[in-house]
Amino acid sequence: MDKFDTKCVQAGYNPSNGEPRVMPIVQSTTFAYDTPEEMGELFDLKKVGYFYTRISNPTSEGLERKVAALEGGTAAVTAASGMSAITLTMLNILNAGDNFISTATIYGGSFNLFNITLRRLGIDCRFVENDTPAEEIEGLIDDKTRAIFMETIANPAGIVADFEKFSRIAEKYGILLIVDNTIATPALCRPIEFGANVVVHSSTKYLDGHATSVGGIVVDGGNFVFKGNPRYPLFNTPDESYHGIVFADAGKTAFGFRLRAVVNRDIGAIISPFNAFLTNLGCETLHLRMPKHSSNALALAKAMKEHPAVEWVKYASLPGDADYERAQKYLDGGMAAGMVSFGIKGGREAAAVFQKELKLFRICTHVADARSCVLHPASTTHRQLTDAELEKAGVPVNLVRLSVGIEDEQDIIRDVTEALNATLK
Ligand SMILES: *Cc1c(COP(=O)(O)O)cnc(C)c1O
User: What is the pLDDT of residue 381?
Assistant: First the structure.
């Protein structure tokens, strides 16, 4: 079971004699026991087992084991959504008065969480760019800095993270490096191999891959020593809700253990067993889908680059792209998944014509579906911003985001080319 493709199909669930071959959906909130003593031991974390689905569930756990295996982590915890996975991760290490560093070109939802909601709770996010010089980033670190956060392939900017620089800084200061690997997926990049300590996902995207289930997951890299690290009092102080347990003592599974036993016990942002089942099913073909998304996207990006209605194309595996070298370095085979952004000539009006003319690509607030889809941020997700504000946020008014599916390559190119042609009429 060491090869990646085999793990996609089989990791996480291994039936015993006579048990269902397919991981069952355990649609039960509760689990029955013979004695109150045994149940008490479960509550005290002295015994391992299921007792309430808010804490753990066999179906969710099957998905957790699979994704932990795919990412090369020691454990994983599922969550209700990508946003809740990120929120739980941050609350696992940060108190009011603490701070962390994040790249600014990240998913809009994460940006809002960091810039507004966490700030309201007294947690300060210090934004940097992927290419901010190391000395400048180090200048933002103080003894209350608890994490560095970035995305492997930023959504929607398409920037590939500078793992070498950020992991060197994180290691130098004993700070946790958290990487959102949603767009790359472990099929194209395993951030733990490049120094990440925690990997988070919106499993809503490629892990599910079929646009059926909102979900998230947090993977513990097991490669960070909390014990005695003064930056992490929450892991080194006895937890009274568990009779004085010290989570750092859990060693290689401390991060995930505390996130499950404390943070999500209190927040309760869990995935449903049914969504975990569907997400696990999606993961079984991840190794087949990601190369197809990537080759379709690259072929389309190349064709679009030559089209007279296109101002620019952003795709990291396109030769000459600003992120090309990093894509070759950190992404398997230089493959950069299915998200392609481009600038359309003619701004809002042309973007509207383009979207209406598309046939295979449907207008969806989504990326990473097997089906191709399109979104024009300026008229949807970012519609409240002025043209100047859009420019500043890195989503200029002419930016159109395509999520390239796994349909036939020539059909995809034809659909986009014909819709682009219509904008020139
Ligand atoms: C979609 C997305 C999220 C948020 O995930 P949800 O499942 O929608 O909550 C976080 N990070 C990235 C990179 C995403 O693309």
Answer: 83
